[in-house]
Amino acid sequence: MILFFLTSGLFLGWSLGANDASHIFGSAVGSKMISFRKAAIVASVFFILGAVIQGSGTSNTLAKLGAVNAIGGSFTVAFAAAVTIYMMTKFALPISTTQAIVGAIIGWNIFTGNNTDSFTLSKIVAAWIAGPVIGAVFAIILFILLKKIKKSVSIHLIRFESYIKTGLIVVGAFGAYSLGANNIANVMGVFIPAFHLQDLNLGFFTLNSNQQLFLLGSLAVATGIITYSWKVMETIGSNIVELSSEAALIVVLAQSLVLFIFSSTGLSEFFVSTGLPPIPMVPVSSSQVIVGCILGIGLYKGARNINFKVLRDIGLAWVASPVASGFLAFFLLFFMKNIFNINVGSKVAGSIGTSQQIPDSIMYDQTGVSGIIKYLLLGLLVFGTIGILFYILLENKKRKEMQRSEDKFWKNMKQK
Amino acid sequence: MAVFTRTTKNLILKIDEFFDNIDIGLLVFKEAIKDFLDKDMDAFQRHLQKIESLENNADRLQREIENEMITHSILPQHRAEVSTLIDELDEIIDALKSSLNEFNIELPEIPPSLNKIFISLSETSVNAAEELIPAARAYFKAPYTVREKLLKVYYFESETDKISLNIKKIIFQEMDELDLAHKAHLRYIIHHVEVISDLAQKAADLLSGMAIKIVM
């Protein structure tokens, strides 16, 4: 039953993998610089690493916004966000997973009578606006730097492109890691306060309850990347194909830096130690940040290239996504509680909700789930190894066939 | 990654070798025309064989370059244009070979009074193509300099046209001792030499557009 309640979060994860993760390798795959297979493997592995290692920062912020303290509530909030994303995508309206989940949490706060922490909310909204702006600034600076380096160093175009190709894989891996660290909160953040899993000892490291949830969520994201992102990457590739390969690299790097900044607790602590204000750990919309980065390069090249309609779409998404998702969450919670008689959470006594204030009695202790995760990991390891070996064999076979056909061609030519 | 680096290095070497082939082919062509006008047919035959071997090698390199670019997904955004450029350059060496073959088979009788201007025509026409090669190399290493290098191609092409018109004028208006068939044959041979600069100009137009695209 508990695993059933997780399905809405896993569906959200799948949709995040299919859509948002595509932005990282979209331009590289669309322009045929990297094969989809390679991109999907790198994106999946690094998303999982980012989510498990560094996903807690942004999740804590969402928990501060509203600690959904019953599994039924977590399910409904994630489901409301998922349905909002589906509906808005169906009607071709701009949408962001981040904004949908925040709206749904606020809907839960209103339904259960909890106060919404206005400070946390303002921090989140400020980060949404700052994300694309910082992305644009980073993109401009990095693009100018790369252009200067390219001009000053006389490098062969083919060698330069090979560096760009390698760079796209490295930066894409960093982007996937940052996306995992920043956006896993959207997928699993609402389940954290209501879930308590036994620590999972894997020998060389131990996964705590949150990390196990992040692992499950990121596996759903990886499934989204592998099963559906191909279509989205092709679309993005053809939309962004007018970007040169170096601009594509800069866009992904700038986006990754923004996502990393808003999810790195270490960097935030470093800021504090130098007397600067801390960086808010907030999940930001990767699609909006990437649009900001592309606009930055467009501005640098001359504002004529810019389609200002995308700015209007982002503004609309900032308002429409949370409002729609919040309303839907409120009504779904009403139905879940009154018709299906499921506990969707309650008002947290005292001040604004944090996970520490949730009574233990309504938290779930699922030791069995940890066991499932352990076997899931083992299975993945086995299938992953088989998959990699199969891929290498296939590539070798293709190369040999190509060589054979080439040799045959020149042999025939010589005979003529 | 090491495999990829090796592929890149091989491809760069192959492109350079291809350009070298065209460059040497142009030098050989100039020498072959001089040999023909000096009636040194042994040297002419040697140069013709050299051109044939260079042309064959250029064809092989062209195919290998295109194959490697496709197989290893190299330069996906510029691949089509680079392939067209290499094709255009290959057409130049094809034209050199076919032009020398015309000389070899048809043995045109070029009046000795036209020798000097004929050498000038072949040198100017070949110069246009020779100036194209550094521009094509620059596309890969310093695309900012391509357009300035191409200016010389356009200059030599227009000079070739002028010399060609001049020779034709001399043949058809001043050389009454030649019959019409002889004049028409000479015009045909002149066209075969002139076409080298026309092909160079065609490739220069393409290269110019490619350079703008890559610099932007």
Helix residue percentage of chain B: over 70%
Q: Structural class, judged by helices and strands of chain B?
A: mainly alpha
Main pleated sheet of chain A: 2 strands, parallel
How far is the first residue's CA from the last residue's CA of chain B?
Answer: 29 Å
Supply the number of helical segments of chain B. Answer: 6
- Which overall shape of chain A is indicated by the principal axes computed on the Cα atoms? globular
Mean pLDDT of chain A: 80
- Please tell me the overall pLDDT of chain B: 90
Which residues of chain A sit in consecutive blocks of at least 5 with pLDDT less than 50?
Answer: 351-363
- Integer count of domains of chain A: 2
Name the beta content range of chain A: under 5%
- SSE order of chain A: HHHHHHHHEEEHHHHHEH
Strand content of chain B: under 5%
CATH architecture of chain B: Up-down Bundle
Alpha-beta classification of chain A: mainly alpha
Order of helices and strands of chain B: HHHHHH
Largest interface: A-B, 23 and 24 residues
Summary, kept brief:
With 416 residues, chain A is mainly alpha-helical. Helix content of chain A is 75%, strand content 2%. Chain A has helices at 2-19, 22-30, 36-54, 56-65, 71-90, 97-112, 118-152, 157-188, 209-240, 245-261, 265-273, 286-301, 309-338, 367-415; strands at 195-196, 200-201, 206-207, 364-365.
